[in-house]
Structure formats: C-alpha cells, structure tokens
Specification:
38% strand, mainly beta, 51 strands
C-alpha cells in the first residue's frame, strides 16, 4: 500500500464509502481493507495447517464461509460454525518517517496480535474493542510487513455467534509531529434550545504547541460553514465554546447532524493538522416522576436488543449492512436499540445518528464469574479499563447514544464485590463522559430480588431483564429509581406497553430481539409435538443454527409480532392482518419461552377447507370489520380491553382476506393489508433495495427472491430451490433464507426457499459498470434484475 501525495483537500466525514481524508498533501486517514494475504493456520479441531495464503478483502469472517456442522467448536452458542486461528499479512510502503503512524483496528475477533516487521506492536484479547496501535517505532522507510494474528481457538467464548477474523475496517492514520490526538475531540451541547444552543469542544494536542493556534468551524449538513472561532489553549489541552448557536435539534424524528472541524496552524498560518467529527444538538433528562425527556419533550422508548452479526454475512461489518440494519429497525417502529452485549461497530452508530435511533451502548456481557469457559471473565481484571475507555472515547460524540451499559446479567450478582466493580465501571464512564447516564441489565433466577438494591444504586437507570413485573413493588420500596426493561419476551408486547405507557418511572422496553441472529440456536423457536421440546439453554437445538425470537427474520422480513409492537407504540391509528397457523396442519404447535405463535400472511391452507382458521386483526381504531372476498365475516372491537386485537374464526376457502377499520359510528375509514390465496408456483420475482452501487469494493445490494403464481400472487408455502448468478462488476457474497434449520452454508449459490422466499447479497467491485443478477429454478420462470455500479 503506497501512501501517496495528493492535492489539497479536506473531507468532512470519513467512512468506507469515502475512504481517504487528506490534509495538505498528507493522507491523514486511509482505509486499508483491500488486498490482504490470509491463511487459516489452525483448524477447528486444533490441527496445524500449511501457511498457504489467499488474497482477501476486509471486512472478513472466515467462520461464515463454512457449512453449519454439528461438530463445529462454536456449538449451539455460536451457530454450529468452526473457529480456528488465522494470519493476515499486508505490505505498507512508508515514504515519510517524520509522521506518526497509527494502525486502527475497528474489531478483530479475537486475541489479535499486531506485528510490524516481526516486532510485536500490541495486542487486545477482547474481540469487540476498537484499538489504535502506534506502529511508528517499528517502521522503516520503504516496504514494511504488517502481520495480524487472530486466535479464536479457545471455545466456547461467547453465548452467540461472534465470527472469526478482522471483521471490521482497518485504517492507517498518518499524523504530523503536532496533531489532534485521536479520540480526544469531545463535543457536548450543555445548553440546548432551538436557536440558542451552546456547543463546547475539548481536545488534546500531541507534540510541540509553541506558536500553534487552532480554529474551530461548524458546518451544516450541506457542508456550508455556519460558525467559526479561535480555540483557547491550556498547555496541550484546548477548548472552544460556541454560544447562542442557531442549530436544529437532533431527535429520532429529525436527526439533524452537524460537523465540527478543528484545524491546527503554525505561526506562519500554515495548516498542520485538521480533523472533523459529526455531532448533534440534543438534551436528555430522566426522572421517576417525569420519565425520559428528549429536547424537553417526553418520549416512550420502544427498543430492540440486537447482536452485532449481519445475518447471512456473518460478522462482516460492511457500512451498507449496518445502514440496512438501522433502516429495518426504524421501519419496524423502534426508536431505540441496545447493542447487546458488546461494543458495536462505528458504522452502525454512524447510521443511528443519520437515521435517528436512540442507543444504549453496551460494553460487556459478563464480568468475573464465567458464563462460558473462555469468555470475558478471563480478561476483565487486566483489560476492563482499556476496553471501556476505548468504547466511551470512541463513541461519545454520537448524539444517538443516550446511555452507557456496563454489563448484562452478571453471574456474581449476589457477591458484595459486584457493587465495587459496578461503581468503578460507572465512575469511569462518568469521568470520560459526564453527560450520559449509566445502566446495567439485572436479572434474577430465584426469588431473591431485593438483594440487588446496592448494585442498582450504582446505576443512573436500572435495567430489568424479564423482571419488570417487580416494578410496582420496587417503586414503592425505592421511589426514586428509574427503570427500563432491558430485555423482554416478544409475546409480552402488550403488557410491557401498558407498563411503559402508564408509569413514568418505567421509561422504556427493549425486546429480545429486534432481528433474528446467528447463534443461541433455537431461542424463540416454535416446534411440533415430537420435536426437541427443550430450551436452547438446556440442550443443543441442532439442526437449528440461529435464533427465531426477532421481530425481523434473517433475510429482513418483518413478522406479525413486529407490526403489533409498532401499532402499540405508534402515534397514529393503524391496522394490520395476519393468519394464525392452524393447529395440526404441519403438526401440533408448541411455543418456547421467547417464542410467539406462528402467524403468517398466508391464506393457502389446502386440505383444511371448511375448517375454522383464526385470523388476527391488530388495530388501534375503535373497531374492525373482516372481509373474505366481498363477504363480511364480522365486526369486532379493538381497544385496550381486547389488547387491540380481534380474532376471527373463519372457515377456510380460497379467496382474499381484508380488514377495514371502523370509527365509533361504524364507518369504514382505513384498510389493512390484503392476504390472498395463490395458485401453484410459476415464476420468481426479484426485488432489490437499491438501484445503484458505489464502485468501492464495499457497497452491497440486498436481493429478495419471492416465488409467485402466474398472476403475480406470492406463494407463501413454496420451497423451490433457487440458484443466484451474478455477472458484471459485482460478486455474490451470500445466499440464504429465514429457515434456521437450513444447514447449508451461506456461501452456496443455490438456496431452498422457505415460506416462499430466499435472499442473496451482492457486493460491488472497485470497477464501475453494470451488474446483472439472475435467479433460476427448475420449472419456474427465471427473473433478472440489472443495476449500475458507479
């Protein structure tokens, strides 16, 4: 990789899509994702392999490139995929040794050791920490060998799928002798009013500061300069304050962002260094009396817990994948997310800022008492301060983040030492960022709950995992305590909405989970009599490899429970219709703890003609009317007493189901979605989430294949095999379905549809041009879509 000279330019943002920032003729920050040599040197069984290298690009996850396997070391927790040990190599060509060179790894799972010219530059065991390695002392002019060894052999080390390898971006920072220290720029808005906001920024400068001055500039979303003023120095510490700034406020509904640029200049007025951070102006407060207040207005938090994997991509954190994840959560009606149970990717947080999603930023799953044999309990004493510091310093300028979370269901919850640990972690968060509260997710597996009061007292907001039924007695005992349910069962959506809606001291609910994820196989499953009837934490759930408790499935399709939750928390009346799978059609149905009854947008139940099938209509209108074709099935009220649901028993016959919302006078005022019977499979229908890609070797397009009849009606029980083919300037990265029992790895081009659908993910190359995506299946009419890469 040549660090080259370029024309004078300064960018206002940096991401994988705009992969270079330049100050004067110096590349200050450059993406190093392309053209790494990779070797898997130890396999899942501990066998040492020959160091044969292949050329790969980052983000990279070698585990996801395999079929799911019952004997794989990650087991049920990790989705039955293998781990191992890998080596990444790259050559850096350094032209100027006067600079300070920092290698920035956003995430490498796990036990990453960084070597420069065979010298160890540093290591970090926690696979979710973003780490900066100063590699300057190990470099020479000319070519330099960078080697990163990633060791994920110690299994099991997590309760979910982690992936293996350098699964996030890698950057090179080239800093002058005098520079703004990375992660030191800290922007706050101590006073927030529309048209009268105070913006404060602090940062540190490394190197000689005599004769150095700095200017801070605020830009709007269009890159227009709106404020500019000099910075005050106190030694190497610098600070600037903008008073009475007329800024638009940031919120989930109006995610207004600004950029602050800090430019260092020498006494001659020449630019030495320049950095830019985005920020938003917003205020938060919280109390047991008034609930959660954002910019002076109360907000009911409807949240989702999410793991960091990206479904069919495994752990690979492409910016486009993180953007889609946030978009799906927003479209499902969530206004908040909890990054359970680890540091999220920077790209995910960037998208939460841009799209407007509140965030609980979580650091750790467990502390000193292990949950799994090789989890964070092995590293906490030596590393917790560095890992927590990297999280808070990296993320504290994100307006989307409203809280730091220091832990989740720690096993040592009854030991007195846990109070000290919580206090130390919480105080470090407050020291680095006094503007946000601290939480931790508490849970009990026995009747002893009051015993956690000393632990809860260390927190600003107490997280309740599945324990919000204790809220009333807790409020009477500790009336000043502010609560949110940091995990809840999907089926309890209505009861949790009631608690959040009626009690200001309960400020929100975070369902487990927002999106189906890899690992914790079988959580949220439904099953039929004769199948494995145990929970995932009792026994392995093979051939299942993923969860099924999400509001959104593995390929991005919303489940009926998602529409129910959105309607409960929605600000405007709405109506939605789905069909409960008839008992005995595929078997006698049973639900698991995190499960919900299997309900589908499906009116194809051949063989059950005349049998009563339950049709569920969800609505916040006063009443609903159900039609089968043009015949009225009946009217039913939908209100708080009915949990905003109406259940109609409809004798099955082919046709079209539709519900109408009624006002208090019985007038039809709104229409639901339609669920229509389909004929036999005839063709494939492809839809894509965008029509053009960036030719940056990073962008993604998500492709959904639906099987339809000759009239274009979706066939909801079709299971045809679909083969995806990509030509032109794109590559097929993954295929899959929402079937968590499909053991075929996501790298295969052929995929069996489940419930009528399959999906593919296509990535751009570094060349512009056309991309053609084709889907074929025996005896079905094929489908083709074309798009551009620019």
């Amino acid at each position: 990789m040549l660090i080259c000279c370029c024309a004078l330019t300064t960018t206002l943002s940096i991401s994988a899509e705009s992969s270079v920032t330049i100050v004067n003729d110096r590349v200050r920050k450059q993406l190093l994702d392309d053209n790494w040599a990779f070797s898997l040197v130890q396999d899942d069984k501990g066998n040492t392999l020959d160091e044969s290298y292949s050329i790969i690009d980052l983000p990279h996850d070698w585990s996801i490139l395999n079929d799911f396997n019952y004997e794989a070391s990650m087991g049920n927790d990790g989705g039955y995929l293998p781990a191992g040990k890998g080596i990444y190599k790259k050559t850096l060509n350094i032209k100027n040794q006067d600079y300070r060179h920092i290698l920035y790894l956003e995430g490498a799972y796990m036990n990453a050791h960084v070597f420069v010219n065979d010298s160890l530059a540093g290591h970090r065991p926690y696979g979710y920490s973003s780490v900066m390695y100063d590699i300057t002392p190990y470099l020479k002019e000319g070519d330099n060998d960078i080697t990163i060894k990633v060791d994920n052999t110690q299994q099991v080390n997590a309760r979910w799928y982690t992936g293996s390898g350098i699964y996030r971006h890698v950057w090179l920072l080239n800093l002058p002798e005098t520079a703004v220290e990375p992660w030191s720029l800290y922007i706050t808005t101590p006073r927030v009013e529309t048209g009268n906001t105070t913006v404060n920024a602090k940062f540190e400068v490394t190197g000689p500061v005599n004769g150095v001055n700095a200017v801070a500039t605020i830009y709007d979303k269009n890159g227009k300069e709106i404020y500019n003023q000099p910075v005050k120095f106190n030694g190497r510490n610098a600070e600037v304050t903008f008073n009475k700034a007329a800024l638009l406020l940031w919120s989930p509904e109006t995610p207004n962002l600004y950029a602050m640029n800090i430019t260092l200049k020498n006494k001659e007025g020449n630019t030495i260094d320049s950095v830019t951070e985005s920020f938003g102006a917003r205020s938060i407060s919280y109390s047991a009396a008034n609930g959660f207040i954002l910019n002076g207005s109360p907000v009911l938090i409807t949240g989702a817990c999410v793991h960091s994997d990206n479904s069919l991509l495994g752990a690979r954190s492409y910016d486009a994948a993180e953007k889609r994840k946030v978009k799906m959560l927003k479209e499902a009606g969530f206004n908040a997310v909890r990054t359970s149970h680890n540091h999220p990717s920077p790209a995910f947080l960037d998208e939460c800022d841009r799209q407007g999603l509140l965030v609980i930023d979580e650091a750790f799953d467990g502390w000193r008492d292990e949950k799994k044999p090789f989890d964070y309990s092995k590293h906490i004493d030596r590393w917790w301060q560095k890992d927590l510091e990297s999280l808070v310093k990296r993320d504290r300028n994100h307006p989307s983040i409203i809280c730091w979370s220091i832990g989740n269901e720690v096993i040592e919850r009854k030991k007195i030492e846990v109070v000290k640990t919580a206090k130390n972690m919480a105080n470090l968060c407050r020291e680095l960022d006094p503007t946000r509260p601290v939480t931790s997710a508490l849970c009990a597996w026995d009747p002893e709950w009051d015993i956690y009061d000393p632990l809860a007292a260390q927190l600003d907001i107490t997280g309740y995992n599945y324990m919000i039924h204790m809220s009333e007695s807790d409020h009477q005992r500790v009336p000043e305590r502010i609560m949110w349910q940091t995990e809840s069962y999907p089926r309890d959506a209505f009861e949790n909405w009631v608690r959040v809606n009626d009690n200001p001291y309960i400020i929100g609910d975070f369902v487990w989970t927002g999106i189906d994820y890899l690992g914790e196989a079988g959580i949220g499953k439904f099953y039929y009599t004769g199948e494995n009837d145990t929970e995932f934490f009792v026994s392995g759930q093979w051939p299942m490899h993923a969860s099924f408790c999400g509001d959104i499935d593995l390929i991005g399709v919303r489940k009926p429970i998602s529409h129910y939750r959105e309607i409960l928390y929605g600000n405007t009346p709405s109506i939605y219709l789905a069909v409960r799978e008839p008992e005995g059609y595929f078997g006698n149905i049973r639900e698991s703890m995190w499960g919900t009854y299997p309900t589908w947008e499906n009116w194809n139940w051949e063989g059950f003609e005349g049998e009563p099938i339950e049709v569920e209509v969800i609505s916040t209108y006063p009443a609903v009317r159900l039609y089968l074709d043009n015949d009225i099935v009946g009217d039913m009220p939908t209100n708080r007493d009915t949990k905003f649901k109406a259940i109609f028993k409809v004798p099955y016959k082919k046709g079209t189901l539709k519900a109408m919302a009624l006002d208090n006078n019985g007038n039809e005022i709104a229409e639901s979605n339609c669920v229509k019977s389909a004929d036999n499979p005839y063709s494939i229908r492809l839809t894509i989430d965008k029509n053009a890609l960036s030719a940056n070797n990073q962008d993604l397009v998500y492709v959904t294949a639906e099987i339809v009849d000759r009239y274009g009606n979706f066939v909801p029980l079709a299971d045809n095999e679909i083969t995806f083919k990509v030509s032109g300037n794109g590559t097929l990265e993954a295929t899959g379905s929402a079937d968590i029992k499909d053991c075929s790895g996501y790298l295969h081009p052929t995929r069996k549809a489940w419930k009528g659908r399959a999906a593919a993910i296509v990535k751009s190359t570094d060349k512009a041009g056309k991309i053609v995506i084709e889907a074929t299946s025996p005896r079905l009419k094929k489908a083709i879509v074309k798009l551009k890469s620019e």
